């Protein structure tokens, strides 16, 4: 059997980290747990993942985010109405984060300190990834005159990212239809215009 490549070893470690985070929780998972789950030495884990646990937390988060964004990009391509795409995409993102056990664990209070450390320096990376996925949709809509001409894609994605985060963190016990109405009334006009 040929030796594992660096990329394959890294993926194996990320898989093990995701499994450990799910089983033990983010706060209680150590690099030792991850090494055992991956069937590797701690030294190999540290050589492959130089940022340690924080880098692994972010790697798991970004991998899951990429998987989600693959599906979101496809759904956006099928949407005919920009306002409804904004509402549906926002609702979908909130539901995804609430239902995705791995991301949900990162947002749990017991992991908050660890999440802050891992993600604090990577917010730009997360926003850039989101922009890469939705940029084609927003650019087409803007060229077709369906978005305000004076807004930037990056700023729009950051705005939606902040709205999604607030809907997750500040659950006002609103039903889905009330949340959709809120988005149509307050969020959509900011992006689409009056």
UniProtKB/TrEMBL annotation:
Pfam families: TetR_N. The keyword Manganese does not apply. Keywords: DNA-binding, Transcription, Transcription regulation. Residues 7-67 form the HTH tetR-type domain. It comes from the Bacteria. Residues 30-49 bind DNA. The keyword DNA-binding applies. This is TetR/AcrR family transcriptional regulator.
